[in-house]
Structures are given as structure tokens and as C-alpha cells.
């Protein structure tokens, strides 16, 4: 008699669960990275627009005041 029995069905279920969790972690990491890149692009577009319009005081304020920054993003049509 064998001390350890191999349960193929149990093994397959465990492998599937691990693969599923790995896939979720990979997707979350990818989503986080893409979100950061998109956020950076949005803020860069706002900053470039404010500089082009010589609105340097607004640029400074937007860095310090997230509510005002959101208003400017809407004003420039960058964020709806």
C-alpha cells in the first residue's frame, strides 16, 4: 500500500486555481501600470496646455489643489 495517493483531479483543480490567481495578479499589475501611464498623459496634456496659454499661476495652483486641477481638466476638455 502506498503512503501517498495521487489525486489527479485534485491536482488539476489546484493548478487551475493557481493559474487563475496568477492571471488575476498579472491583470491587476497591467491595469495599474496602464492607469498610471494614462494619468501621467492626462496631467502632461493639462500642463502643456496651461504653459501654451501662459497660465503659469493656474499651473502652480493645479499642482497644489486637486479640485481646481479637475476643473481645469474639464475646461480644456481633457477630462469629461
Structural notes for this entry:
By secondary structure, the chain is mostly helical. It has a domain of 36 residues. The protein is 80% helix and 0% strand. The radius of gyration is 25 Å and the shape is rod-shaped.
Structure at a glance:
This protein is mainly alpha-helical.
- Main beta sheet: strand number and arrangement? none
N-to-C order of helices and strands: HHH
Beta-strand segment tally: 0
Estimated radius of gyration? 25 Å
What low-confidence regions span 5 or more consecutive residues with pLDDT below 50? none
What is the distance, rounded to the nearest whole angstrom, between the alpha carbons of the first and last residues?
A: 69 Å
Tally of helical segments = 3
Secondary structure class reads: mainly alpha
Q: How confident is the prediction overall: mean pLDDT?
A: 91
Question: Helix proportion of residues, in percent?
Answer: over 70%
Shape: rod-shaped
Roughly what fraction of the amino acids lie in strands?
A: under 5%
Amino acid at each position: 500500500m502506498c503512503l501517498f495517493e495521487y489525486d489527479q483531479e485534485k491536482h488539476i483543480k489546484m493548478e487551475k486555481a493557481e493559474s487563475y490567481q496568477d492571471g488575476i495578479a498579472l491583470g491587476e499589475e497591467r491595469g495599474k501600470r496602464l492607469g498610471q501611464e494614462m494619468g501621467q498623459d492626462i496631467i502632461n496634456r493639462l500642463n502643456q496646455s496651461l504653459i501654451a496659454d501662459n497660465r503659469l499661476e493656474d499651473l502652480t495652483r493645479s499642482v497644489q489643489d486637486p479640485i481646481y486641477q479637475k476643473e481645469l481638466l474639464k475646461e480644456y476638455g481633457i477630462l469629461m
